Every structure is written in structure tokens, then in C-alpha cells.
Amino acid sequence: NFNYVVKALKPYEDFLILPKATDNSKPAWYNIPLTIKPSAPFRRKELLDALKEGKIEYRNLFTGNILRQPAFKSIHHRVGSALENADITTTNSFFIGCYQGITPEMREHIANVMTGFLDKYK
Q1: Counting beta carbons within 10 angstroms of the beta carbon of residue 92, is it exposed (0 to 12), middle (13 to 18) or buried (19 or more)?
Q2: What predicted TM-score, i.e. pTM, was given to this entire model?
């Protein structure tokens, strides 16, 4: 399921940062983490709205720049450098499931909804 959806999204790498396994690893992907590039002509909410309309579950990434989380606003901390990548993760990343129970029809639907949305910006 992971390979099918990521392969379908490969033509849209101008807009998305696609996940890939590190060298010499064979992960058992339970989700497909995706990040929308800051230069993309759409925002995360627009893509997530299309997924929601297509009845596709998604989740925002759990953290990103943890210093933006309300629980961490008052803690004493220091920042050693700019947190641009953490900020991008906070605002532009999300994931969709790809567990083994997804049927071929379901994964095709996921790919079709996502590519249908992305095609509007090609």
C-alpha cells in the first residue's frame, strides 16, 4: 500500500516531500508521512479538505516545532539556531494510513483523490 500510493505521488514531487527509507533499512510502513513544500501553490488545509471530502482519514504530525505547542510556552529553554525545518513540519506535514487492511480499491481511491487534487496545480 505504501509503495502504491508513493509511486502515484512521485510525479508531484514539485509539491510534496515524499518519504523514503534510509539506506540498508526495510521499514514496515504503518503510515505515509508527507510534507507539502513551502513553494507549493496550495496549503495543507486545502489538501486535507480534499482528503476529508474523499472520506480519507489523515492526521497532522504530532509535533514539529514543539516550542509552538501551548504546553511548552512557559518552559525555560534556549534555541541554538533557526528552526525552519521544524516550523515547516509543524505547518506542512501530515500522514495517511497504509496498514495491511487497506484493500486495492481503497489504495486506488487514496491515490485518485490525492492526484485529482494535485492535478489542478500541474
Answers
A1: buried
A2: 0.87
> What φ, ψ does residue 92 adopt, rounded to 5°?
-120, -5
Please tell me the distance from the alpha carbon of residue 64 to that of residue 50, in angstroms, as a whole number.
23
Neighbours of 86 (CB within 10 A): 16
pLDDT tens by residue, 94-114: 999 988 899 999 999 999 999
By CB neighbour count within 10 A (0-12 exposed, 13-18 middle, 19+ buried), where does 111 fall?
A: middle
CA distance 82 to 15: 23
pLDDT, tens digit (0-9, with 9 covering 90-100), for 32-65: 999 999 999 999 999 999 999 999 999 988 777 7
- Model pLDDT for residues 64-95, shown as the tens digit of each residue: 777 777 888 788 888 888 888 888 888 999 99
Would you say 95 and 31 are in contact if contact means Cβ atoms under 8 Å apart? yes
- The x, y and z cell numbers of residue 88, run together, are 515547516
